[in-house]
Structures are given as C-alpha cells and as structure tokens.
C-alpha cells in the first residue's frame, strides 16, 4: 500500500491475491437468509436434467415447530448468469463481462477490508481472537470493528461493481427493489448476503443478457445506498473515510461511502447558441457567461474550485420569465460554451436535463430518477451542468393536493441535494431551474436557488431589430437600415445599465417599503441601515428569511468576482486551466474587486424584487381562482333555485 497526500493506493498484487477466493464465491456457497425472504429457489436452473431435491424436513417436536427450518441455499452466481440465455450453450460476451466485473469487485472489496483491518488495528484483534487471547475488555471494540469492516466490504463491492459495469449499460432498466440482506457480523458474511440477494434479483429481473447488466447495476446502487445509510451512525469508520483509496488499474477512486462514477462525457445533440444570438436578457446572459468560465477553474486533483472556496460560485440558480423570452436559448448558449471549453481542455463534460418524463407513477421511482440525475451531475470527475426545465410542473408544492406523489418525492430530493445537511459544493457543477410560473414552485425549494436570472427577452427597439434580423436568416435582400447590428448586445455596457436599474426596486410592493425606509433613515450607506431595510422587507413578506440573506450575500460575493476570465485562458489551457490549485487561486484573487454599498443595495433589490414578483403573481392567481369558484357557486345556486 502506497500513500500520496490524502490518497492511499490499493496495490494490484494485494487485489489479485484475492481472485481465487472471489472466484470461489461466484462458483458457489451456502447461505441462510436472515433478513430478506427468498423469492425463488436458491440454485440456478441446470443446463441438463438433474436429480430432484428432497422436501425440507419439518420438526414435529413441540416447541421446535415454530423455529426457522430454513436450510442454507446453494448460491451459484456463475450458473445463474449463464442461465440467462438457455438457447446458447456458450457463455456470451456480456455474461463473461459480468462475471469478470463481479470477481474484480469482490477482490477489490476483500483487499479494501484487509487494508482497513491493518490501519484500524482489527487485524491484531482477529489474530488474538483466533488464538483465544482476546482481552474481554476489547470484545466490544472487536465487534464494532467487524461491523465497520462488513459495511465497508459491502459498499466497496457494490461501488466497484457499478463502476466497472457503467460502460456496458444499455437502455434496459430493472426495478429490483430495496437491498435487504445487509449483514454486519463480519465482512465474509456481508458479501455472502449481498451475493445471495443479487442471485435472487437476477433470477427475477434478468431474463436476458441486457437485463443482467441492468439488474446487477440497479442492485449495486441499492446496496450502496443501504450501506451508506447504515454508515452514518456506525462507529470506527475513520480508518476508511479519512483518505481516498486508489485502484490505479481501473482508474477507480474510493472516497468513503460516496459512489464512484466513470468520468465520461454525455453526447450533446442540442443546437448550441452563440452569446450574440441571445437577444436581451443581459444580466442572465452575463452571469451565464461568467459561470461557464468559473466552472472551468475546477481543480480535478484537489476536487475543489477556487471560486467555491473564496465565495462567488453559483451552485444553483433560478431562471424565470414569460413564455418565449429565451430560457431555452440561454440553456443552449451556456451548455455550448461549457462543452467547447471542456473539449479544448480535454475535460469530461456531462449535461443532463430533468424533465416531466422523469416523473413516474411507480412509487419511489420518481425520487430514484431525481437522485440519479443529481449524482450524474455532481460527479467530481466531470464538469457538470444540470437543468430542470418547467420546474413548476416537475416539483410539487408540499401540501398541494394537486401534486402527485412523484412530484412530492422530487421536491424532497432536490431540497436535500441543493441545500441539505450533506450538500458539498465542490465547484465542478451547477444546476439551473427554469420556469414560466416560479410562483407555483415550493417556497423552500425556490429559495434554494442562490442566484436569480430574470429572463425577460428583448426589451428595447434595438433588441427587437436584432432578434428580427437574427431570425429572418440570410435568404433575403432587405436592407438593415440605420442600426448597428448586435451593438445593443455588448455585454459590459448592457449589464452596467441593467445593474444600475436596481438602485431602486422595480416591484410596486418593494418600492413602497424602500421609499418608507428611505424617508425614515435616509441613504442606505451603512450595514445598520441595510439591516433595517432587510427587516422592513421581512415585515412586508414573512418568506424573506435568513436563507434569503444568504442568497443575497452570495450574489454580492459573485459581484466581487465581477470579472470575466480572459478568453485566452480558455483557448490555451496551459495559461490557467492546467495550473495547480494554489496558482489558480492566486491568479483569481488578483482579479477580485472590493465590495461596494451599491452592489449590496442592487443585489438586495434584485432578490427582493423577484420574491415580491413571485408572491404577487401567486396571490393574484389564488384570488382569481377563488373568484371563479364563487361565481360558479352563485350560478349553481341560481339554477338550483330556478329549478325548484
């Protein structure tokens, strides 16, 4: 085992020495299920006729009749895998791939358990226990360490199996249900329980080769989730979680109970847009441009972005506006920029959209889809961009009877992922939520959007000339006239004008609060006066909580990073992208500008304007609905009385 920084290596020879034991487990072993109930006969069907088994003995002795008479089931995973295609007597390539992946995953798991035993002192306790010299005072510690090793073995096996099978997945899906047979007495028993349950899942959910991979990968995910959940309250795991463990031959890094993922890009088929093709939306476009470059500052060795450490990184943002104002165009522009930057630098880029088709009527499936979406985007081995278009249709309001169970599941997953107890912002990914009706999004979920992009489309005469010219194309000879094409879309000038517009509030409700506070205390030129203004906003809208203040201060920090990384840094990766983390941090720090009072006032007004806009729309919609209901009641009453 070699050590480098905070990373420890599992040597190839330490893994390969467990190949024989791993192969023996796949060949066959006996296991008596203790938690899960067997759904099928344990032994896989034979390829030739065999001798029938005897009926299980049932005791007639009083008192023993209620005891479990379950006999160990013979688990023969290799036979089970090969039985997936009875028509072919030879092992298929996919079957062989699965067998090799499972053997490799078991060997990695056993090597990891052995390494943990060495660093935690469990190996010494095992030897003492075997020799009968284990001190009675240390038996509790011994039991806890064995349970910890069992959790590690189960999770690493599932993690490695899912990782190794990822390149061989297909469109086939398998709903295997929850992992139940997670035994924590010791590592061998944990692996036997996992393999027994995998055998059961394959018997039910793998009728052919493609479903073999899908069912195994699905079970591996369930087993990882179950083991990670148990690990939250389990003691003595520091020897495993304190460092990353590296398997060089597989390019696999084991980071505690976090699932590993192949750092592969997604294939994008969308039509990318250039910045000048996004007409209007100046602030939204400006922040999207800067965020695209911010993501590229991520350091894959340190697994951290200097912007995330210094402040000013946008992890989540909400883009709202009327239909047809350019939300999809903004997504196409940002995805295109990041895609091009990543291709130039040789980084893996992963874009994924979570749409209405991910809401499933099957209980729990919508939540699983949302978790999978989050995990794919936050994978620390890639640059990620996740979008949730029409989030008001996808994530339901809590307590709303019109929201389906699937929509409620999605809301819960997103809230936990975006600002939950376990949320870690590394700075390698960002999530954009877009909606035409943000007032219909759950308040708590909406407030988890750290930045607000008002997507208001073209506004000025120049904007409308630009968009008309752009959409008309080139198949005409109509003169442009007296106009500088795309001159109004120059980012710096347009953004400066847009930010200045927020020196005073835009929404009438907030303008009234601002005017009243200004009359009482004068110019907002100190933190005390700004705090007074914030309290007045909270009194006008009780949803303006501490999270709103955090989002405002984060936006102010973004403004402190009010610079655009030079294009040449993206075009020539050697100038910035390939520098070490400390050098990149120093280069960014030199460009940072000081925070001013104007920045703070503008960001307070921008954020509060959006909340007042959402609240006003939400209240107005509710009032209109009640008016229609009252009208229908009155009409129904009138018709009823006329008919009596």
UniProtKB/TrEMBL annotation:
This is ATPase-like protein. Residues 321-454 form the ATPase AAA-type core domain. InterPro entries: ATPase_AAA_core (IPR003959), P-loop_NTPase (IPR027417). Pfam families: AAA (PF00004). The lineage of its organism: Bacteria, Pseudomonadati, Pseudomonadota, Alphaproteobacteria, Rhodobacterales.
């Amino acid at each position: 085992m070699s050590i480098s920084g905070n990373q420890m290596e599992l040597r190839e020879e330490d893994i390969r020495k467990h190949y024989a034991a791993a192969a023996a487990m796949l060949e066959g072993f006996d296991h008596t299920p203790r938690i899960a109930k067997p759904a099928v006969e344990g032994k896989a069907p034979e390829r030739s006729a065999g001798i029938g088994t005897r009926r299980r003995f049932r005791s007639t002795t009083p008192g023993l009749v209620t005891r479990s008479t379950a006999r160990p089931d013979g688990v023969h995973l290799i036979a089970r895998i090969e039985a997936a295609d009875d028509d072919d007597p030879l092992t298929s390539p996919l079957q062989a791939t699965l067998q090799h992946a499972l053997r490799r995953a078991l060997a990695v798991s056993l090597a990891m358990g052995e390494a943990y035993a060495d660093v935690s002192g469990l190996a010494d306790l095992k030897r003492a226990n075997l020799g009968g010299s284990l001190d009675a005072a240390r038996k509790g510690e011994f039991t806890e360490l064995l349970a910890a090793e069992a959790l590690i073995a189960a999770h690493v096996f599932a993690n490695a199996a899912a990782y190794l099978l990822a390149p061989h997945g297909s469109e086939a899906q398998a709903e295997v249900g929850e992992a139940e047979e997670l035994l924590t007495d010791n590592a061998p028993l944990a692996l036997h329980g996992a393999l027994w349950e995998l055998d059961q899942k394959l018997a039910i959910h793998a009728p052919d080769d493609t479903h073999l991979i899908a069912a195994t990968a699905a079970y591996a995910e369930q087993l990882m989730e179950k083991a990670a959940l148990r690990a939250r309250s389990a003691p003595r795991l520091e020897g495993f979680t304190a460092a990353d463990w590296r398997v060089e031959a597989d390019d696999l890094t084991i980071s505690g109970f976090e699932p590993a993922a192949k750092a592969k890009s997604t294939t994008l088929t969308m039509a990318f847009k250039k910045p000048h093709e996004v007409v209007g939306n100046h602030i939204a476009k400006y922040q999207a441009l800067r965020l695209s470059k911010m993501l590229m500052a991520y350091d894959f060795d340190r697994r951290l972005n200097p912007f995330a450490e210094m402040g000013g990184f946008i992890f989540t943002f909400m883009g709202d506006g009327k239909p047809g104002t350019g939300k999809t165009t903004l997504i196409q522009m940002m995805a295109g920029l990041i895609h091009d930057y990543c291709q130039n630098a040789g980084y893996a880029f992963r874009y994924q959209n979570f749409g209405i088709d991910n809401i499933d009527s099957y209980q729990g499936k919508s939540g699983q889809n949302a978790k999978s979406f989050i995990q794919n985007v936050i994978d620390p081995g890639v640059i990620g961009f996740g979008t949730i278009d029409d989030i008001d249709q996808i994530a339901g309001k809590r307590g709303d009877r019109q929201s389906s169970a699937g929509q409620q599941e999605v809301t819960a997953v997103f809230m936990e992922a975006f600002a939950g107890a376990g949320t870690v912002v590394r700075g390698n990914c960002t999530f954009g939520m877009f909606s035409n009706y943000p007032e219909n999004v759950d308040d708590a979920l909406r407030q988890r959007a750290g930045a607000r992009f008002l997507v208001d489309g073209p506004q000025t005469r120049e904007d409308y000339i630009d968009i008309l010219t752009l959409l008309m194309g080139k198949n005409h000879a109509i003169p442009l006239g007296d106009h500088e094409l795309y001159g109004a879309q120059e980012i710096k000038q347009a953004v400066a004008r847009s930010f200045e517009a927020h020196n005073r509030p835009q929404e009438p409700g907030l303008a009234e609060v601002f005017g009243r506070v200004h009359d009482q205390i004068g110019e907002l030129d100190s933190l005390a006066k700004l705090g007074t203004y914030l309290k007045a906003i909270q009194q006008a809208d009780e949803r303006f909580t501490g999270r709103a203040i955090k989002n405002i201060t984060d936006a102010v920090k973004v403004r402190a990073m009010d610079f655009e990384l030079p294009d040449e840094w993206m075009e020539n990766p050697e100038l910035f992208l390939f520098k070490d983390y400390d050098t990149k941090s120093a280069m960014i720090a030199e460009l940072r500008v000081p925070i001013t009072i104007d920045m703070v006032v503008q960001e307070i007004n921008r954020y509060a304007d959006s909340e007042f806009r959402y609240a006003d729309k939400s209240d107005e919609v509710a009032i209109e609905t009640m008016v229609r209901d009252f009208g229908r009641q009155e009409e129904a009453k009138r018709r009823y009385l006329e008919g009596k």
